[in-house]
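Teaching soon. Invent one.


***
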Amino acid sequence: MMMSHNILTGALILLAGIALLVLIIFKLFPQTNHKADADTKILLIIFTIVGIGLLGMGSWVCFI
């Protein structure tokens, strides 16, 4: 059984978002100390927003 193009594309985007969030949570957050500079905090926030956006976009494409 083949998946339709929308489901396949959405699933791949969804997996990319999950992988990015897992990388951020388990690799990047523990390596930043509590006295991290402002640039590091802003980049972590931006990457987290992009990961959440990928989750939302992948879910939307996959299930619509």
Summary: Residues 3-63 form one domain. The longest helix spans residues 5-31. The CA atoms of residues 6 and 26 lie 30 Å apart.
